[in-house]
Amino acid sequence: MADLAELALEARGLSAGYGRVQVLRDVNLTVRPGEVVALLGPNGAGKTTLLRTLAGYLRPAGGEVLLFGASCGRMPVYKRCRQGVSFMGEERHVFPGLTVRQSLRLVRAQGEQAALFPALADRARHRGALLSGGEQQMLALTLALARKPRLLLIDELSLGLAPLVRERLLDTVRTTADTGVGVLVVEQNARSVLDRADRAYVMRRGEVVEERPADHWRADLDGLAALYLS
Ligand SMILES: Nc1ncnc2c1ncn2[C@@H]1O[C@H](COP(=O)(O)OP(=O)(O)O)[C@@H](O)[C@H]1O
Ligand SMILES: [Mg+2]
User: Which residues form the ABC transporter domain (predicted)?
Assistant: First the structure.
């Protein structure tokens, strides 16, 4: 079981950007083991920039990131992976030239792990590049989980995918968290993600403007919409 006293992830006063362009300002955020935390906010709010900074692809200009209770400073991406961080970026992370079966074998996904999505079983001999968007994302999530992460960072889980696929992916995210994995997920469909999340942060213009339990947001979707629109 995960140590619930220890945070899976903490950002403290984090700032980051691109060259001289500052995007993130003083971002404070936590994810506990076993928690699904939604990261919401309009386009351009800085969600992708934040995830990329947490995953180690972008260097913070200020503040710090702590993984599993320890400051990770300038720790490179691969070391964060070794610590148990799995990052699914906006582009679909599948092996385009490998079949589903080969991909699963490569990451040593077996049994239940390999069979997370029954829809993929029918596609065992299809190459990653030839799968539908939904199948690619189901495979990407399967591959990310095969590494047995302790922290999962997901950008735009269901962008462009059918509602049924989105629900299926989100259900898997929830059951994964229930095994003790911390999850930070960006998802455009606020209602769907709030149905499975414990808490949600809303970002605007590079800042976290509000954090509340998911059920508070669900009861105040108008208030949430106002944050997007104002
Ligand atoms: N590679 C980049 N170079 C410069 N500015 C960028 C780059 N990527 C994103 N930005 C800017 O950073 C801001 C936040 O973008 P992003 O993190 O992609 O937001 P979100 O994921 O919430 O839509 C935007 O103003 C965007 O124009
Ligand atoms: Mg984005």
Answer: 9-230
